[in-house]
């Protein structure tokens, strides 16, 4: 059977990581099996590390604060990822800005909790909620040198309901994230 390998990078809670492991890892689509060959986390206490263990997967911890600068950290990421020989890298809640050292060498996709190009950056959920827009949403895009700025792959929106709270807004976003990211992975790798 034809196998395509992925690496997943995450930083914290790992709900998107778990979702991918549930829906995609070791599953076959169009005769192609997707295998998660590498997990990397930059925070040693991230809950996602425990989630991965449920699937029998160990996470490699590479702490960014042990490196002198972003470039040195990115060099290490590239070295480890290249060794694993994966077809696609998934940033699933990986809260690091990546330099061209990474973005020029690695084919990666990122999940972002807004309708890009609106609300780039780390506070997209709160900022999109507070904007008063009647639509919120989620984007999956290729990773480029520009933060949250690479070519879009998939987007899905939802409508604000009357008196929607920030918690409800966030809940909708996570629900859509859990559909959209695995769909994008399957489309890219198994078309
Ligand atoms: C998600 O909202 C993702 O869009 C953002 O970080 C969050 C990660 O959540 N980049 P989790 O760690 O996957 O639960």
From TrEMBL:
N(1)-(5-phospho-beta-D-ribosyl)glycinamide binds at residues 14-16. The lineage of its organism: Bacteria, Pseudomonadati, Campylobacterota, Epsilonproteobacteria, Campylobacterales. It comes from the Bacteria. Pathway: Purine metabolism; IMP biosynthesis via de novo pathway; N(2)-formyl-N(1)-(5-phospho-D-ribosyl)glycinamide from N(1)-(5-phospho-D-ribosyl)glycinamide (10-formyl THF route): step 1/1. InterPro entries: Formyl_transf_N, Formyl_transf_N_sf, GART. It comes from Campylobacter blaseri. Catalyzes the transfer of a formyl group from 10-formyltetrahydrofolate to 5-phospho-ribosyl-glycinamide (GAR), producing 5-phospho-ribosyl-N-formylglycinamide (FGAR) and tetrahydrofolate. It holds the Pfam family Formyl_trans_N. PANTHER family: PHOSPHORIBOSYLGLYCINAMIDE FORMYLTRANSFERASE. This is Phosphoribosylglycinamide formyltransferase.
